[in-house]
Amino acid sequence: MLRCSYALYSEETMRYQLVLGNQAYSSWSLRGWLLLEPFGIDFALEVVPLYVPEYQQFVDANFPATTVPTLLAFEGDEKLTIWDSLAIAEFVHEHHPDAGIWPADSHARAAARCLCAEMHSSYAALRSTMPVNVRREYSSFKPSPEAQADIDRIESLWHWAGTRWGGAGPYLFGEDFCAVDAFYAPVASRLRTYGVSLGAESQAYADALLAHPATEAFYRAGQRESWVLQFNEFDMA
Ligand SMILES: N[C@@H](CCC(=O)N[C@@H](CS)C(=O)NCC(=O)O)C(=O)O
User: Fold this and answer.
1) Which of 12, 32, 155, 167 is in the most buried spot, having the most CB atoms within 10 Å?
2) 59 CA: nearest ligand 1 atom
């Protein structure tokens, strides 16, 4: 019987290039960064500003990618383009099964995948009305009822997973940062930017996500950027 083995893929010959958008604004890019950087996986970083001609050059050179994050994986003469953050999580996990991208326990892993899938496909109101902006902190923002419903659902999921698998934390599945934390870190960033008050447990988790050294490094890079996207900047206190 022919069995597929992870050993078929040699980590030593694989090289990665991670392409991100503006670190000041791109929530999905923060996710991509947090799927590699905290796990000690080597990669070259390329930041391409969104919505300018350089971005189109990136798209033209990397079909079928149209969005960031995009992970380019090079092995020998082959280049694989992975243009979706869920697929990036799975690909990196397959090639680095001991890195801890997903929780080790099978039930915890299934729950973590559900949480990531829900983050991936939901929360339209939160995303559209509270865009990421690592350079701003507003004090007078009030979420719409729809965005508040998204926040309530997220807090209830954090409580459920944290109670069942989180132990003493600080992350959702315990002391180790995993893919689910990478997926929810941009939510923590939005909540901080818009001054949303959370329950104590959720706040502690959001704070831990923002205090992770890889998140802090992403923030610092975003704060240094000079590109400005006006539609992500609100004129309020
Ligand atoms: N399915 C993608 C979605 C990523 C996404 O929408 N990224 C935004 C940046 S935050 C983007 O690339 N937008 C560029 C565009 O739509 O042209 C993922 O999971 O990574």
Assistant:
1) 32
2) 17
Report how far ligand 1's centroid is from the alpha carbon of 115 (Å).
Answer: 19
User: How many Cα atoms sit within 13 Å of 113 on the Cβ side?
Assistant: 12
pTM of the predicted model, to two decimals? 0.93
All residues at 6 or more sequence positions from 115 whose CB lies less than 8 Å from its CB, including other chains? 157, 161, 172, 180, 183, 184
Tokens 């508040």 locate to: 148
- Alpha-carbon distance 44 to 52, whole Å? 22
Query: What tens digit of pLDDT does each residue of 18-52 get?
Result: 999 999 999 999 999 999 999 999 999 999 999 99
* Cis bond upstream, residue 53 (ω within 30): no
Ligand 1, atom 6: nearest CA belongs to which residue? 67
Angle made by CA atoms 66, 70, 73, in degrees to the nearest 5: 125
Average pLDDT over residues 142-169: 98
Question: Is a pLDDT exceeding 60 seen at residue 1?
Answer: no
**Domains of the chain, with CATH numbers?**
15-95 (3.40.30.10), 106-222 (1.20.1050.10)
Contact 122, 149 (CB under 8 A): no
Tell me the residue length of the chain. 237
